[in-house]
Amino acid sequence: MPKPGSERCGRAAAGDFSGAHAARAHRRAAYDYVLVVGPGRSGSEFLYRNLRAHPDLALPEIKESYYYRSLADFRRARRLKDADGKILVDVGNLAYMDAALVPGVARLRRDGYRVLLVVLLRDHRARALSMMRFRRSRGERSAWRGRRGLEEAVVRDRLTPRQLQAMFRLDVDVLTIHFPALIDRPAEILDVLAARCRIARFAEVRRDVANESEDARCFWLAALGKMGAGVLRRLGFRRTWQRLNPGDNRFTRRLFFVPRAANRNDLSLSGSAAQCLETAGRECRSFIEARSVRVADGVYLRTAADPQNRAGPGPSAPRSSRA
Question: Engineered SS bond to 115: which of 6, 67, 172, 320, CB 3.0-4.6 Å?
Fold first, then answer.
């Protein structure tokens, strides 16, 4: 029986995950490590929930484990998660800004591990407004200064062509997924990902909204809850934090948040911020389309064997799409 918020994909082989089938799926897996690099509010939590349901994938209890930062941590995670034969998956919203990303992934490649980077791409302006609302509802520090603090934070945290260039220079495959495609056609997008990883297709797909925009019941109560969550994570109580996470715990959600009014739109971007974000978004899309092959509507793939994988950030004509 599918879980609430899920749909069966309607394929006989999709649900056969046991015994010899699982062993065959493990042996033919194309990667040892799949790293989803965000940014936040681009569908990372939605994707994480669906990936966790697949038996050929090994994921942590919570996102943002950043296994690439330490080869010892990476090996330990594979061992603890019984990932031998499975693909270890890590979802890190801030990985694209992490100075340890490029050297860490390069270290894994030198050690012989096969890596797939998944970049989630959303319209920069839409993502910025969504992130501003989310940060305010969670009482994050950038919200303490009001709209100006939120705006400065989302402009500072934007995905840039330079960050993409650094990732594309790595000797790894890079799969870019546009946010509308992931949200509107999750079954199709997950099929593309499963085929690329050479694992069984997903038996079911969750369509329920993850981390939907809400308003804090009391801003300072939300801020206190945010600090408490940080303390739990730093002390190593990750499972406790996960159980209390508003995204999964209805009691916590009701305690700290109220549904956002449908007609409430009290956050906006200044002209300069909007222009900066639109320019960055346009350049990011052009960069990806020029160096990748379109494998589905809203999905682009750059393989490590591609001769353009050392290309610089300069403009070039978009490549032909795959039939």
Answer: 172
Report which secondary-structure segment, H or E, holds 9: none
CATH of residue 13: 3.40.50
Q: Let me know if residue 198 belongs to a domain.
A: yes
Distance of CA 83 to the CA centre of its chain: 20
CA nearest 113: which of 48, 170, 167?
A: 170
Tens of pLDDT, residue by residue over 149-182, are 999 999 999 999 999 999 999 999 999 999 999 9
E strands of the chain, at which residues? 6-8, 33-36, 57-58, 87-91, 115-121, 173-178, 204-206, 214-216, 257-259, 293-296, 299-302
**Would you say residue 66 lies in a domain?**
yes
Residue pair 227/23 in contact (Cβ under 8 Å)? The answer is no
Cα–Cα nearest to 113, from 310, 308, 304, 307: 304
| Number of domains into which the chain is organized | 1
Helices (H) and strands (E) in the chain, counts: 13, 11
Query: Domain for residue 153, yes or no?
Result: no
Instruction: List the beta bridge partners of residue 118.
Output: 36, 175
The model's pTM is: 0.78
pLDDT of the residue at 9: 42
Q: Any long-range contacts for 108-114 (C-beta under 8 Å, 24+ apart)?
A: 108/33, 108/68, 108/71, 108/74, 109/170, 109/171, 109/172, 111/71, 113/32, 113/33, 113/74, 114/30, 114/31, 114/32, 114/33
Instruction: Give residue 139's pLDDT.
Output: 74
Instruction: Please name which of 206, 203, 202 lies closest in space to residue 183, comparing C-alpha atoms.
Output: 206
